[in-house]
Amino acid sequence: MKLVLASNNAGKLAELQQLFAPLDVTLVRQSELGVGEAEEPFRTFVENALAKARHAAAVTGLPAIADDAGLCVEAFGGLPGVDTAYYATQFGYEKGDSNNVRALLEQMAGIEDRRAALVSTLVALRSAEDPEPLIAVGRAPGQITREPVGENGFGFDPVMFLPAFGKTFAQLPPEVKNANSHRGQAARAMLALMRERWFP
How many whole angstroms separate alpha carbon 66 and alpha carbon 190? Predict the structure, then answer.
């Protein structure tokens, strides 16, 4: 089965393709099929992922999968949430991972409650009209460090400390990170849903 990935992120494609390999599913990035970016006007991950998947399915006529992910900081009432990718721009910095980390550490400078979670929501649709989307959520709770630690990963990995490992995501080998990350959890849950509903 060919499935359009409602993302142009090459890293995300490689990660998900590997996870979905057991299902004999071929993921194709939407840009390769001439699909532009979808609007993401919503305040929840699930609504934005659904909008992206529906858009890709409508344009291509193929089943589609999309994810929306972000960082939810307890002390900020769950924000930046869906605005995670643009977090730094709220504070006058250019968009980018290192600026996001910098802005976050500055905003949390005087805050004792360091609890946060990386959250990923995956949505899959058989068609743009599918009334029963498959929805899988992964959540990796941890604490925000006071400075970046580790060289691996991307995004907030260097400041996301996982008490269970005593390390940040950026200190973990990729296979350990993927086994425990928010996206890894969501992808495994989605795989189980697809096996149950689409490939019984």
Answer: 11
Q: What percent of the chain has pLDDT over 70?
A: 100
Q: What counts of helices (H) and strands (E) characterise the chain?
A: 5, 7
Residues β-bridged to residue 118: 71, 140
One of 24, 67, 68, 83 is an active-site residue; which one? 68
* Under 8 Å between Cβ of 64 and 6: yes
Domains of the chain, earliest start first: 2-197 (3.90.950.10)
138 labelled ligand-binding: no
Q: Is 39 annotated in some ligand binding site?
A: yes
Q: How many whole angstroms separate alpha carbon 7 and alpha carbon 5?
A: 5
Taking the whole predicted model, whether its pTM rises above 0.70 is answered as yes
